Amino acid sequence: MDxxxxxxxxxxVCVLTGAGISxxxxxxxxxxxxxxxxxxxxxxxxxxxxxxxxxxxARNHLGWRYMDAARPNTxxxxxxxxxxxxxxxxxxxxxxxxxxxxxxxxxxxxxxxSYAQVRCLACRxxxxxxxxxxxxxxxxxxxxxSVAAATGVEIAPDADAVVESTDHFRMVDCDRCGGMLKPDIxxxxxxxxxxxxxxxxxxVADADALLVVGSSLTVMSGLRFVRRAAREGKPIVIVNRxxxxxxxxxxxxxxxxxxEVLEMLADALPA
Length: 271
Fold this sequence. Notes:
The chain is of the alpha/beta class. The protein folds into two domains: 149 residues, TPP-binding domain (Rossmann fold, 3-Layer(aba) Sandwich), CATH 3.40.50; 104 residues, SIR2/SIRT2 'Small Domain'. The protein is built from ten helices and eleven strands. α4 runs parallel beside α10. The longest helix is centred in the first third of the chain and has 20 residues.
């Protein structure tokens, strides 16, 4: 902690977060040390195969409510405190759970989108996930109750649930143009919108240091910000259980839980 305070205490800090910061809120991650193997759906599978798409929406119809009900943990709240005190300039998150916003952090870039919005791939119209849920309930009366009663509900990352049989699930299309609906989430194989990436790079550039919390940095969408900070000579601190792709360029790596570290930081760096 002394070394972390030396690196971050007198600097304006940009924070990059991954799934590890939300596990204490009951949301599982993809690559944590204790995580089971996951095979997330790709963008190509979603748009190119109706069976994959039906399977996704059936799972999501159950799982999104659990993510919506999740609440910020002490780590999220500590980051909000650090922002209010002027230490943290903003948060770039790879998560889609909105827990930073729910915790009160004001400057958040949801790099991969949000579970709470759905967009039409044809006309780009957006609706809330709740609005879509109401339409899917009408199209699939009793579906959620029947699955929960038969098998229980196991929640997986990205606001979906583990459901084996989904052949009988009925999807709905855009009520404006009849186009394909997709969660407003960046899938594997899909690019993060350019404007969002540029805003995140600006957030890194405006800070004096980068703190990475709960991310293995396996995918380039997060690793590029760490590499940019390194090229600019800014100290990088990584808090993550398990190895990350940024360990070699970090000034400090802490193999600790995110909540405990962020709480200690917030207590040690008061306004």
